[in-house]
Amino acid sequence: MNRTLRRTTLLTALLLLLAMLAPAPGFAKPVWRPALGVGPAYASAYVGTVDVDSSGNAVALFPAGETAQRMQASFRRAGGHWSTPSPISLEGANAPHVVMDDKGRVTAIWMRPNGGIQQDVEVATKTRSGDWTTPVPLSSGSPLMAEPNLVLAPGGTVVAAWTRFDSGAWHTTTAVRPPGGTFGPATNLSDGSESAPGFVDLAVDSHGNVTAVWSRDIGPYNVIESRTRSTAGVWSSLDTLSVLGQDAYAASVASLPGGTTTAVWARFDGTHYVAQASTRNGPGGEWTIPKNLSTAVDVDSTDVAGGHGRTVAVWAGTPDGSPHVVQSATRAPNGTWSTAVPISNPVQNALNPSVVTDPNGNATAVWKRFNGSVDVAQGAVQPAGGAFKPAVNLSAADRNAYPPFVAVDAAGDAVAFWVDAGDVSLQARSAAFDRAGPAISVLKVPRTTKRGARTTFSVTAKDTWSRIRSYEWRFGDGSHASGRQVRHTYARAGSFRVTLVITDKVGNKTTRIRTVRVTRR
Which PROSITE patterns match (predicted)? Predict the structure, then answer.
């Protein structure tokens, strides 16, 4: 969940309104796939968002249009192509977020002007085989200052959060949709403040506990606050995570499947804005004393993700006398944080990092970086237990890229999504880090056959982001064959290990082993 991107999305949206895309790690050649255009080029578009289900099906959402800016949705089945984007909102929609469950149900949220500076938060849904519903407002007529957010809990509950002006003060607000139901009334989570709370970030664990974090003005400075919604639907009392006395903002949060939750933010220490982290072991636990993750860097944005017992934090900041750089630190399963390291090239400004982790603990981070002429989208990957690899350019070197967003599926394939600008038009694009081998849906290997009988072996498989290059069968008797469907005759009785290796175009492999018992006639 990219907290920085969504804040940047809002800023860009307001400026425009005022002016107008499972195998374990260790495959052979996980690589970034070339960028793909998502739909046609538009006269007006800026940034969007993307989500994937556990199987790698993807949905992208971005506001665009030739003459009137509407929210556009595009879908990509795993192994397929992006669909032609279709408008799903009225004019003026901006600041999108989207989630998709494993049944194909998509929930989208965005803001849209409702006269003057007032805005509505709107939601729409779509099933795998159905049409988009007519957008409905969750909150109306507020001059919203931070874009809405969504999180999908196990079982299908969706929690939305945003900022609104209510009863003479600013509040962090939420609404919840139970599985198969509709969103309930908006409820304030925070006490009122004179200025708008920061972007509300959300995280969910495997049990369904949802944690919200935000920054709130309490008078002389901002603090980081949090509340957690239990599986029973009850929000906890308010927790203040940052130490009082200095400004704290740019909060992000991530939960590990078992319930360990980590929040990361930037807090002023009198000299610099320092990246800090606090962790809670389960929804009923206490938040730890904040730990400094960065040194001598003025941090202005953060993101955090977790998987397989590891939590990866990223942030953008300015070292003394240097351009912006993206840095990272990792919390090991034993609770120890690593030393912060830069993961972007420090020669030119790098901003707006977004990070995800897969169930095996591999991390994928994206950001935008100035190349001396334009901003380019970049990506870097960190294998579980290792260091980040060198960053790779995802976007063209002659087109200006807006901040990228990243999502990851259960197999570990990650998809980055961004919008870039040329001399005339803007284009939504995606690039994927192809980490996983092909997924097998049907494998037909007989348990028994007869000596001398011509026996059929077949497989149905697809790769999320690459074409399948080869199917190689070894029959355990020294024979082998190639192809999706093959035939083999055993010359003698016995038990034989049949091995199938499927390789995609970039070298990722999936292996399956079965045993065949060959009987006499």
Answer: PKD
